[in-house]
Amino acid sequence: MAHKAIDLACGQLALTSGEIAEVPCGCLTEALIIDFLYGFTSDWGPSHNPASWLNYTNDPARFWHFAMSDLVEGAARLEIPLSAAQLAQLDQLGAALREGNRRVNLTRITEPADIETRHFLDSLTAAMPLLDQLRAHAPLRLVDVGSGGGMPGLPLKIAFPHLRVTLVESIGKKAAFLRATVQALGLRDVEVVAERAETVAREPEHRDAYDWATARAVGSLPVVVELCAPFLAPGGLLVAQRSGDLDTQLTQAAPAFKALRLWSRVPIWLDLPGLGADGGRRGLIVGEKYAPTPALYPRRPGIPRKHPLGRPLGDL
Question: pLDDT tens, 278-297?
Fold first, then answer.
């Protein structure tokens, strides 16, 4: 395609998708994601009637609003406005995730539309309990435990650039992907730590030091609590993104909340476009740290998963 001339005499290209889209002038490489039919449009006669058209525009905000409409709509419902520059960064993150997934197992979600909702929008929901502080540009420190492909830490950093973010990822290849992606996106105040959370949480610069901790796919709720809570300073919030029966999960994890000095808040249920596409209802479990972490926790690497602090399901 790089060797095929494109005639924009009429400002249009034919698409196969049956929809209208726009590409900013000077950014025609973005059209590669739309899978369009190209040719010499000025040679087409009046009878040529393609199913749809690709228009070019000088307004990048209109382009990103169209291309990522579910994400934009969902973020607006969360009261998290995203600029054209932020949407472009998220699009770049999505491209990096798809490319990196060819070499490292980062995610099973690879379709662009699903990445925008089930990764990016889902990540932004973790900000809900702290929106007032984030809007006030409070200098919050966020730790994302078991970051994997950077969710939710990187979308949150893009949406709230003033955040100071630490991504904890024990698998070396995934940590290398995170470092390369942070550099490519030009993100500042983002640290990638390639170590087990149980080990990092005992280092003085990380223990009882963060305002906010997140984790998406690190295990059951008791495991999440033990791995995340030691990072939090008193008053800090654990925001765990979960699906299924949140009340039952809270009951199961009650011993972990008590041991790690967390109060549990009422779960927050989510109703946003594209979330719950896998059949499970999504929500947030929030815990507030009320005292420093007891010296016993976290236990040795691997022990929180082998012997979680929660109640056996049969006892509930």
Answer: 556 889 999 999 999 999 99
